[in-house]
Amino acid sequence: MGKRPPITNRVRSLREKHGQMSQAALGEAVGVTRHTIIAIELGRYSPSLETSFRIARLFNVGLEDVFGWEGD
Amino acid sequence: MSFKEKSAWAMGAIMLVTGVWYAQLVAAAPQAPVIGPLISYVLAVIVLSIIAQTVLAILSPREAHASADERERIVMDRAGNWSGIVLGLGVITAIIMYIGGWSATLLVHAIVGALIVAQLAEYLFQIFLFRRAV
């Protein structure tokens, strides 16, 4: 936290492609609060590996389809 | 604003108000037995905390029953670590004042004061971290 993590993500677009899933619904599905989903989408918080996998599995995509390294 | 942040605001306000009240009690009678203001302070904090948490739980019943998620745990752990430093500095200051001539009564009040300030700092750190990471 604090310094912006160099990790990009496509959580918002995946959520929108997934039937306009709400942030609250995604949070509930992967075991975090809506505020944590907001923080992830804004790039202010890098989720744990477990939560990252939960998000990827929920959208039926690979981990690297959700998260990337800035500049790659 | 998340439930945990609302709770931190409420508890921070309670610590601030009761802390100022405790300081006024001590200032009015610095050498009086410690037990009087201490019991009044502890009871006030308990009653106000129960009221605040009950109101917050009524307003957000689902969030109130949910345990902290991974980001909230990081925030609370970090705020706890930082407030521990504040507590340590307060206790060291109190001991130095005691060595410098303060009475044992004032030493106890200073340590209670350090506990209050550290607790207030913990809630302020939580609010700061919740705001920074959301």
Automatic annotation (TrEMBL), chain A:
**Entry-linked Pfam families:** HTH_3 (PF01381)
Domain named HTH cro/C1-type is located at 11-66
The keyword DNA-binding is assigned to this record: yes
Q: Which UniProt keywords apply?
A: DNA-binding
Molecular-function annotations in GO: DNA binding
Name of the protein in question: Putative transcriptional regulator
UniProtKB/TrEMBL annotation, chain B:
Which keywords has UniProt assigned to this entry? Membrane, Transmembrane, Transmembrane helix
Question: What organism does the UniProt record list as the source?
Answer: Stakelama sediminis
The organism's superkingdom is given as Bacteria
The identity of this protein, by name, is Uncharacterized membrane protein (DUF485 family)
Q: Where are the transmembrane segments?
A: 38-59, 79-100, 106-130
